[in-house]
Design goal:
Blueprint lengths: L2 H14 L4 H10 L2 H18 L1 H8 L8 H14 L5 E5 L6 H16 L4 E6 L2 H17 L1 H4 L3 E7 L2 E4 L5 E6 L9 E7 L5 H5 L1 H15 L3 E11 L7 H8 L5 E4 L26 H11 L1 H8 L13 H5 L5 H4 L4 E9 L12 E8 L4 E6 L6 H15 L3 E5 L4 H17 L10 E5 L5 H13 L3 E3 L4 H9 L8 H14 L21
Parallel strand pairs: 1-7, 1-8, 2-5, 2-6, 6-7, 9-12, 11-14, 12-13
Antiparallel strand pairs: 3-4, 4-5, 9-10, 10-11
Helix pairs in contact: 3-4, 4-6, 5-6, 6-7, 12-13, 16-17, 18-20
Pfam family, one: Terminase_6N
Organism: Streptomyces hygroscopicus
Protein name: Terminase, large subunit
C-alpha cells in the first residue's frame, strides 16, 4: 500500500467516526472482512470515549447496569470533560447505582479523556473513599491497553496514584480529612454524611461545611468543576446549605424514588418509579412501609423532613391523603384560593403563599394545589387568578395584614387582564375576601390542625414543602407563607357562616351547580 493510499484510508476512517450510527452500520455491512475488523476497533474506541456508561459496557461485556438516571450522570461528566466549568448536584435514593457510576466508572472515563487532569474524590469516611480509589486504580491497571493509560511506577496507592507519562491522577480522602498535594480539575463528593445521626448533628454539619469551604474548594483549579452526589438527610445538610447560600451556582438534578411532579428530570409522571426494572412502585411502597415516613422522605424522596413541631403531626397528613382515583368521586361544594402576600413587591422578598382548597358536600376538606413562590406583585396576582380559573374557585381569600390592599388590587387587575386576553371565558370573577389576622397565629392554626387530627382534611397530592412547614412549625415562630395560605383557605371553608355559599350569598348563583 502506497503512502498516499494509506493516507486516504486513514482520512476515510477519520470521516467514518463523524457519521451517524445508521450510516456507520450500512458501511460496516458492505465492508470487506479486513475492513470490518478495523471498523470494529474504531467502534470500540468510540464507545470508550462516549461516556462512563458506554465505557463500562465495553469493558464488562455489557454486564454493567444501565438506566436513564445514570445517563444523567454520564452527561455531566461529558460536559466537564469538554471543558465546561460545572457545579452539579445530583440527589437520588440508595441502591440506584449512583456511587458506582459517579465514583468508579466516572473517574476511569474522565482520566482516559483528560490524562493531564487531577481528579479528587471524597466520601463520608476515608476507607470508603479509598475503596473507590482502589477500584479505579485496579480497573485502570487491568484494562490499560484498552484505555490507553496506565499507572506510574511508584505512585499506585489506593488513595493517591498518577497516570504514567502525564500530569493527571487521582487522590481520595474522607470528608473532614486532608487533601494535600496538587490541585484538582474535578472534585467529586459522594455522600458527605454517613446517615441520619450524622446529618442531624449541628456539630457534624458545621464540620462538613467548614471542610467544604476551607479544604475542598481551596484545592480546586480556577476552572475546576464540582460534582456532589448524595441522598438527602436533613434540610441543612451539605446540599441544603449550598442551595440556601448559592442556589444560582448549581445545576440541581433531583431524582426521587417516586416522581413527585410533572417537571421530573427523566420526564416521569407523578407516581412512577426511578428504575422500574430494579425497583417497581410496589417495591417502593413496601420499602416505605418498612422504613417509616421520615426515612422515606429523606433517603428515598430527597425531601428531608425535620422532626415534628407542636401543632401538626405527620400521621394526620399522610394517613388521610387521598389518591387521584378516589378524589374523582368527591363532590366539591366550594373551592377557594388563598393568597398570603410576601413582605415586599419584588421576587427577592419572601414567598407569596398561594394555596387552593375545597370542601365537599359531606363536610370533608381537600388541599388541592400549592402555587407558592417568589412572585412580583403583578405575578402573584396573575398566578392566583390562573389557579382560581383552573379550579373554578368561587372565592379568593387575601390576607391584608401586610400589603394586603395592594395584593387585592393585584388580583383584581390580574383578572381584568385575563378577561381582556379571553382567558376567563366569560366566567365571573370570584369574590375577593379580605382577611385581617387579628388572632395569634396559634389560635388561627389550632382549629385547622384539629380538622386534620379528626381526619377531615385530605391532601390530593404530595405537597412536600407545605407539609414540612406545617409539621415543623412551633408556636412563637413566624409562620411560613404556605402554611398561612392553607390555614386561610381552610378557615374560610370551615367557617359556619360561610358553610352554604360563602361569606354572603352570590347574586349570580354561581355555586348552584356544585350542589
Amino acid at each position: 500500500m502506497t503512502t498516499a493510499t494509506a493516507d486516504l484510508e486513514e482520512e476515510a476512517l477519520a470521516q467514518y467516526r463523524t457519521l451517524p450510527v445508521v450510516e456507520r452500520r450500512r458501511i460496516a455491512r458492505r465492508a470487506s472482512p479486513e475492513l470490518r475488523v478495523r471498523l470494529a476497533h474504531i467502534e470500540r474506541s468510540m464507545a470508550l470515549d462516549r461516556s462512563p456508561g458506554a465505557l463500562a459496557a465495553v469493558l464488562t461485556g455489557g454486564r454493567e447496569m444501565q438506566a436513564p438516571h445514570l445517563d444523567i450522570i454520564d452527561r455531566i461528566y461529558q460536559r466537564i470533560a469538554a471543558g465546561e466549568r460545572i457545579r452539579a448536584m445530583v440527589t437520588m435514593p440508595p441502591r440506584a447505582g449512583k456511587s458506582r457510576r459517579t465514583s468508579r466508572w466516572g473517574p476511569v472515563w474522565y482520566m482516559r479523556r483528560q490524562p493531564e487532569h487531577r481528579f479528587m474524590l471524597a466520601s463520608y469516611a476515608a476507607h470508603l473513599a479509598d475503596d473507590h480509589g482502589r477500584w479505579v486504580r485496579n480497573t485502570i491497571s487491568e484494562h490499560a491497553p484498552a484505555l490507553g493509560i496506565d499507572l506510574r511506577y511508584g505512585s499506585q496507592a489506593a488513595n493517591r496514584f498518577d497516570i504514567d507519562g502525564h500530569e493527571g491522577g487521582m487522590v481520595t480522602a474522607g470528608v473532614g480529612g486532608a487533601l494535600t498535594g496538587r490541585g484538582a480539575h474535578v472534585a467529586c463528593v459522594d455522600d458527605p454524611f454517613k446517615g441520619s445521626e450524622d446529618a442531624s448533628s449541628p456539630t457534624q454539619r458545621e464540620r462538613v461545611w467548614d471542610w467544604w469551604q476551607s479544604v475542598l474548594l481551596t484545592r480546586l483549579e480556577p476552572q475546576g468543576s464540582v460534582l456532589l452526589v448524595n441522598t438527602r438527610w436533613d434540610d441543612d445538610d451539605l446540599s441544603g446549605r449550598l442551595l440556601k447560600e448559592e442556589p444560582e451556582d448549581w445545576i440541581v438534578i433531583d431524582l426521587p424514588a417516586i416522581a413527585l411532579s410533572d417537571d421530573d428530570p427523566l420526564g416521569r409522571k407523578p407516581g412512577e418509579a426511578l428504575w422500574p426494572a430494579r425497583y417497581s412502585a410496589d417495591d417502593y411502597a413496601r420499602i416505605r412501609k418498612s422504613v417509616g415516613e421520615r426515612v422515606w422522605w429523606s433517603l428515598y424522596q430527597q425531601q428531608p423532613r425535620p422532626l415534628e413541631g407542636g401543632v401538626w403531626q405527620w400521621a394526620w397528613i399522610t394517613g388521610n391523603r387521598i389518591s387521584p382515583v378516589a378524589f374523582r368521586a368527591v363532590d366539591l361544594a366550594r373551592v377557594v384560593v388563598a393568597l398570603d402576600p410576601a413582605g415586599g413587591d419584588t421576587p427577592g422578598h419572601d414567598e407569596s403563599g398561594i394555596v387552593a382548597a375545597g370542601r365537599s358536600t359531606d363536610g370533608h376538606y381537600y388541599v388541592l394545589a400549592d402555587r407558592t413562590g417568589k412572585h412580583s406583585a403583578e405575578a402573584r396576582g396573575r398566578e392566583t387568578c390562573l389557579l382560581a380559573l383552573e379550579l373554578d374557585a368561587d372565592a379568593i381569600v387575601v390576607e391584608t395584614n401586610y400589603g394586603g390592599d395592594m395584593a387585592r388590587q393585584n388580583v383584581v387587575q390580574a383578572w381584568a387582564e385575563l378577561e381582556r386576553q379571553g382567558k376567563t371565558q366569560g366566567r365571573p370573577m370570584p369574590r375577593v375576601l379580605d382577611v385581617t389576622a387579628k388572632k395569634g397565629k396559634r389560635l388561627r392554626a389550632e382549629p385547622i390542625a384539629q380538622l386534620y387530627e379528626t381526619g377531615l382534611v385530605h391532601h390530593t397530592a404530595e405537597f412536600a414543602q407545605l407539609e414540612t412547614q406545617m409539621v415543623t412549625w412551633v408556636p412563637g415562630l413566624d409562620s411560613p407563607d404556605r402554611m398561612d395560605a392553607a390555614v386561610h383557605a381552610l378557615t374560610e371553608l370551615a367557617n359556619p357562616a360561610a358553610a352554604a355559599t360563602g361569606s354572603t350569598p352570590y347574586a349570580d348563583h354561581r355555586l348552584s351547580g356544585r350542589r
